Amino acid sequence: MGKKQPDDPKAVVRKLMKAGKVKKKCCRSKSRCKKCPVMALKKAKTQLAKAA
Length: 52
Known about the structure:
Radius of gyration: 12 Å
Largest sheet: none
Order of helices and strands: HH
Helix content: 40-55%
Distance between the termini: 19 Å
Number of strands: 0
């Protein structure tokens, strides 16, 4: 009876934004920061691909 992860990576990132773990806008620095939404989306896509 654990929490169900959404199938959409964008939904995962939106949830992280609301929780304050991810910034709303990317600062576009060369080395992406940990709170970057671009990196969060990339990470979410890979995690969902592994789970499927």
